């Protein structure tokens, strides 16, 4: 059942990273500027993130299976619309539908693991889930680059629509949620569920978690899902397939890195120190990537190192689970996921604006883009470090 749910998550990974491969085709067909390209890539994350709130409540009230099966057809429709889109506006509508349709994909996997696996296995299983979901990133590396180079970006969306339909059928056939060890209380009404979600924002430790959550995964997705292709093609003259190879290498690393970090999870108190240190280290690597304009090999090496170290973000999920009581775990995870993907949309949009501004000023755009990512990640790390931590963590020493 978990693997069936992960198939939808893998496809959501493909959708959110496809822009890195089709960017040049979109710019050629629609005459898109860097800021328009960033807005296109960011719309998925914004739609995905906004819907986390409703998907979290839906899963609590109606279950994972029904929520995913109800939403995912929108992703199929959005991909089909994108494959046909005659204008940029239709393409944006398709992207929004894809984001809404994919919204429950990762949250369903995370909540399923939280509900049906032992607490001691949560970090490791979450890492495994991120790794399996990373198979979707593999598709948007070399295979999709080859397909787009020999056909068009429209074919890529058509293929993703077909794979999404197969995933929906797999979930419909295989996923039947096992009963919880403790039967749920009487079903809440929507009003009560919304109030309980709102209560999370009154807890002081929520804000540090969310501020880092908004930038940690967004940094990786902005590089892998948007800028790696244009950066390597425009800086060093890489072909589309060569840039796809670099994206594929990042994706292969991302299959295993989260599970490794999950396996070596140091526990509730030391975990937060690990998260801060690794996020600051990764921020410095983005800055170096932006400044290293003359060395293609160094750039590729930095990209692969960033992919390796970015697996630390799985520890944030463990921190969320340890920071809230069991009856709030599902809601806390959905709020965190909402922040994470709103952050993806915001960072991809903002870096597109920054790239457009840098070009208008006669500067190399990727220096400005990577400096922006580094600054946002550093600020999120400082917020996580200095804002209050959950008092529950002290009880778990």
Topology:
Elements: H1 2-17, H2 19-30, H3 34-62, H4 64-84, H5 88-116, H6 122-133, H7 135-139, H8 142-150, H9 153-174, H10 190-200, H11 204-236, H12 240-263, H13 268-291, H14 296-309, H15 314-323, H16 329-360, H17 365-386, H18 392-395
Describe this structure as you would to a colleague.
The protein has 397 residues and is mostly helical. It is 83% helix and 0% strand. It has 18 helices and no strands. It has helices spanning 2-17, 19-30, 34-62, 64-84, 88-116, 122-133, 135-139, 142-150, 153-174, 190-200, 204-236, 240-263, 268-291, 296-309, 314-323, 329-360, 365-386, 392-395. Helix 2 (19-30) packs across helix 11 (204-236), helix 3 runs antiparallel to helix 16 (329-360) and helix 8 packs across helix 9. The longest helix is centred in the middle third of the chain and has 33 residues, at 204-236. The chain is globular.
Summarize this entry quickly.
This protein has 397 residues and is mainly α.
Q: What is the count of helical runs? A: 18
Percent helix range: over 70%
H/E element sequence: HHHHHHHHHHHHHHHHHH
Radius of gyration: 20 Å
Global mean pLDDT: 88
Work out the strand percent.
Answer: under 5%
Give the beta-strand count: 0
End-to-end distance: 34 Å
Q: How is the biggest beta sheet arranged?
A: none
* Tertiary shape: globular
Low-confidence stretches are none
Helical/strand content category: mainly alpha
């Amino acid at each position: 059942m978990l693997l069936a749910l992960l198939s939808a998550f893998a496809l959501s990974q493909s959708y959110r990273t496809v822009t890195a491969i089709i960017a040049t085709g979109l710019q050629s067909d629609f005459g898109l500027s860097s800021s328009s390209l960033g807005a296109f890539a960011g719309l998925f994350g914004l739609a995905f993130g906004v819907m986390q709130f409703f998907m979290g409540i839906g899963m609590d009230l109606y279950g994972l299976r029904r929520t995913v099966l109800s939403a995912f057809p929108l992703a199929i429709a959005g991909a089909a619309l994108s494959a046909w889109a005659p204008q940029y506006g239709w393409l944006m509508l398709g992207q929004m539908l894809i984001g809404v349709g994919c919204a429950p994909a990762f949250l369903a996997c995370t909540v399923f693991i939280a509900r049906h696996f032992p607490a001691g296995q949560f970090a490791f299983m979450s890492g495994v889930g991120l790794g399996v979901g990373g198979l979707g990133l593999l598709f948007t590396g070399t295979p999709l680059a080859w397909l787009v180079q020999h056909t068009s970006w429209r074919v890529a969306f058509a293929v993703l629509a077909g794979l999404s339909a197969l995933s929906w059928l797999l979930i419909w056939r295989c996923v039947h949620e096992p009963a919880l060890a403790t039967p749920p209380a009487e079903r809440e009404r929507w009003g009560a569920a919304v109030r309980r979600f709102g209560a999370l924002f009154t807890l002081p430790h929520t804000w540090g978690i969310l501020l880092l959550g908004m930038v940690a995964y967004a940094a990786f997705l902005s590089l892998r899902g948007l800028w790696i292709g244009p950066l390597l093609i425009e800086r060093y003259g890489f072909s589309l397939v060569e840039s796809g190879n670099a994206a594929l290498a990042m994706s292969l690393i991302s299959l295993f890195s989260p599970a490794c970090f999950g396996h070596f999870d140091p526990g509730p108190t030391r975990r937060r120190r690990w998260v801060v240190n690794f996020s600051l280290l990764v921020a410095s690597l983005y800055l170096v990537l932006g400044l290293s304009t003359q060395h293609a090999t160094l750039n590729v090496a930095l990209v692969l190192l960033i992919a390796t170290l970015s697996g630390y973000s799985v520890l944030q999920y463990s921190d969320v689970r340890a920071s809230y009581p069991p009856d709030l775990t599902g809601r806390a995870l959905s709020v965190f996921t909402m922040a994470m993907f709103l952050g993806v949309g915001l960072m991809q949009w903002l870096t597109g604006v920054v790239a457009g501004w840098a070009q208008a000023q006669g500067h190399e755009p990727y220096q400005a883009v990577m400096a922006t990512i580094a600054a946002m990640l550093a600020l999120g790390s400082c917020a996580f470090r200095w804002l209050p931590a959950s008092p529950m963590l002290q009880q778990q020493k």
